[in-house]
Amino acid sequence: MIQIDDKGPSLHDYIEQNQSLLSAMAVLVAIATFVANLPVHWLGSSLLFLSIAAVVTIWVELYMRFPMTGSIRLVLFKNILSLSLMGFILYWFLAFGTFWNIFAFVPLFCLMFYMSITILKQLTMIPIVRKIFGKKGYRNVWQKILIAVYGLSVSFGIMWMLFVSIGASPALNLMLEFLRINFR
Asked: Which structural domain range is residue 181 located in?
């Protein structure tokens, strides 16, 4: 979340620093608009899906580059960009129902993985946890065993998240189908 601070970077500074990414995103949106109406429908749909995927990827990179503080215009720009991308992603899910019927577990898994990694990173910042796990190169035998158990637990957690996301994907597909029906 960006905090408003007039002494922080301005919208101009942010755009100047990320001009190439914003330009690439604009070009991909233009391509997506163009290929949606290609006469060869399967090719147009495939290119549209890939263009939207590339726009989402660039947006994530832009989002990660937002400063912690900034001018009111920068905060407003971030919020508008975020809302427009949420609409773009919703369109992506609604327009490509066939694809998401097969691969609906992917966004579910990515969401669960991101949330888990974020929580684990925050936990490792707690001083007592850092002390328990020790510093790399200076760990005793018990800390090395603890690291091995932790790694194994994380591996099992990732497999569990994949299993849960595959199991929950039919419910996501049903929800998306209801949205598709109601928004046509």
From this structure: 102-184
